[in-house]
Design a protein that fits this description.
The protein is of the alpha/beta class. The chain folds into three domains: 126 residues, 3-Layer(aba) Sandwich (Rossmann fold); 134 residues, Rossmann fold, CATH 3.40.50; 89 residues, Arc Repressor Mutant, subunit A (Orthogonal Bundle), CATH 1.10.10.10. It is 43% helix and 18% strand. The chain contains 16 helices and 17 strands. Strand 12 and strand 13 form a beta hairpin. Helix 3 runs parallel beside helix 5.
Length: 382
């Protein structure tokens, strides 16, 4: 058996859909660096900060009635909030209101960002973990421990609010003002999402990456509008891997019994690393005609070398690999070819091109009068 070359990028031959509205290029680059083909389909668009009337309204509420406590959840979100207020001519008065409040940050990086805006000392825990701080209560516990009944608490949000935080504060008697920075709304251009949904339903994508719950919900809503939710959910439960940046982003999918994977650290880098482990791990290598063969989404890896295979050839290869070593009749292979119709020569043409693409004609054996089979190696003797 030939030695496998370890230089093939882990995501080479796989196609991943990206639904992010923000950081789309960053996530796409992380995946492409690992060899993936990327389908960009932003399900949401970000409302420009100067035009965001909801952010302006929340800011004005805090100017009219200053908060007793302010929770900053992200460094970029807090900086952008102050920057937007400066653009509206409200920055100085907002800083003054915030100076009078108890300031809490979810981690050291956020604390430093708050201080960089000219605000005074901020309390933060010694970790930057969102799970430990807001989902599992270090900041929340500090607020509740001091008592929040009758107090006004502003929570700077960056996307979806952490589950349970607002409810817990309200149950304890606080008035909660959510300050949502970078609000997202459904994209005006639905064509990219439609193409993504078509690819998911056809199983031509290997994975879809979700970075927020609103994006996942928007994709499912669009599928519902097009009458294809059942097909999309079925694909996500089986062949197409749904990968989420964290459990919050996974909520809409889990609500439909879709199994998802997410990294332990809720960041784009770990998400890309997770996909780079999960997708190759789903491939079962075959030993064919003295070679090692891996069948990936749109390509094959032969003895560690990536081989581009045309769509018709991939369709045949998948059918043959489903029954390795067994004869697959021509009519069944013809039915698997995209757009082949009843042309009996389409199978022979596709097989010839498949052999050429794999660089090893001996991979696919002709069984005269019956069909074709993969030349599976006999297992070694015990």
């Amino acid at each position: 058996m030939r030695r496998r070359d370890a230089d093939v990028p882990p995501l080479a031959g796989f196609t991943v859909g990206v639904t992010a509205a923000r950081h789309t290029d960053e996530l796409a680059e992380l995946l492409q660096d690992r060899g993936a083909a990327v389908v960009r389909a932003p399900a949401l668009r970000v409302v420009p900060l100067p035009d965001d009337i909801e952010l302006l309204a929340a800011t004005e509420r805090l100017l009219d009635r200053p908060p007793d406590a302010v929770v900053a959840t992200t460094a970029a979100g807090f900086r952008d909030w102050i920057g937007a207020a400066d653009g509206w001519g409200l920055g100085d008065v907002l800083r003054e209101r915030l100076r009078q409040a108890e300031l809490l940050a979810r981690g050291p990086g956020v604390r430093d960002a708050v201080r960089a805006t000219g605000l005074p000392a901020v309390w933060s825990p010694g970790t930057a973990s969102m799970a430990q701080v807001l989902a599992r209560a270090q900041v929340l516990a500090r607020l509740l421990g001091a008592g929040v009944a009758g107090r006004r608490v502003a929570v700077q949000l960056h996307g979806e609010p952490p589950p349970g935080v607002g409810q817990a504060l309200r149950r304890a008697g606080a008035e909660v003002v959510g300050v949502r920075v970078h609000r997202c709304v459904p994209s005006d251009d639905t064509a990219p999402v439609d193409r993504l949904l078509d690819a998911v339903a056809a199983r031509t994508l290997d994975a879809v990456a979700f970075t927020s719950a609103p994006a996942a919900a928007a994709v499912l809503e669009r599928a519902d509008r097009r009458g294809m939710r059942a097909r999309v959910l079925d694909a996500l439960r089986q062949e197409v891997l749904p990968a989420c940046v964290g459990p919050a982003a996974a909520r809409p999918l889990r609500g439909h019994a879709v199994p998802v994977v997410h990294p332990e650290r809720f960041r784009l880098g770990p998400l890309a690393e997770l996909l780079a482990r999960e997708l190759p791990g789903r491939v079962r290598p075959l030993h064919v005609a003295g070679h090692r063969l891996e069948i990936r989404g749109h390509a094959a890896v032969v003895d560690g070398a990536l081989r581009a295979v045309p769509p018709a050839g991939m369709a045949l290869l998948r059918v043959l690999a489903a029954r390795p070593g067994l004869v697959v009749p021509r009519p069944e292979l013809l039915a698997a070819l995209p757009g082949a119709g009843r042309d009996g020569h389409a199978v022979e043409t596709a097989v010839a091109r498949l052999r050429t693409a794999l660089g090893a004609p001996e991979f696919v054996r002709t069984v005269v009068g019956r069909g074709y089979r993969l030349a599976l190696d006999a297992p070694p003797p015990p």
